[in-house]
Amino acid sequence: TLYNVKAEIFPPSGMEYCRTGSLCSLEVLITRLSDLLEVDKDEALTESDEHFSTKLMYEVVDNSSNWAVCGKSCGVISMPVAARATHRVHMEVMPLFAGYLPLPDVRLFKYLPHHSAHSSQLDADSWIENDSLSVDKHGDDQPDSSSLKSRGSVHSACSSEHKGLPMPRLQALPAGQVFNSSSGTQVLVIPSQDDHVLEVSVT
Q1: Cα separations in angstroms, 162 against 6, 80, 157, 198, 200
Q2: Which region ranges are annotated with the description Disordered (predicted)?
Q3: What integer is the mean pLDDT of 53-71?
Q4: Which of 4, 53, 75, 199 fits 31 for a cystine, CB–CB 3.0-4.6 Å?
């Protein structure tokens, strides 16, 4: 297993539970579990300074139609190929129904560059999200000084269109390389205060 994906939904500020029709925060934590392996050596692998990194695309989907993903639903990140490297993604979702709702699905893909000698390449870094990236090589109990952290602008590869840019290729990660630790988790959503209850008496 190369990556662990954990998703968590938080209610709006000042509220104990999510309500139907209200925006809630979705946090996705992507964690690398191992150092460089043979399966990582492909077109997506790049080397800079003292570490390797690979490009991944994440996508949040809800096939059960319980949640509406507001704003961007996917993006491309540059993930360090080092154990305990993490990337946090923050989104907004809106519950459409009340009850115990399963979390939306989070999918990971390898983001492979398009190779063309006749096309002008856009700087790949302008596609990459690195707003919440950290690499911890000394364990979770070490101070932040042992972590490599970087912040930058956020771009969504799914919603952005660049004229003349060749389309990249997405490669699904094989089964067993990604573990979704929040699979099966449910979130309690209560009805909005604006919902009306119709009582029907049958005699």
Answers
A1: 31, 26, 10, 51, 56
A2: 133-166
A3: 93
A4: 4
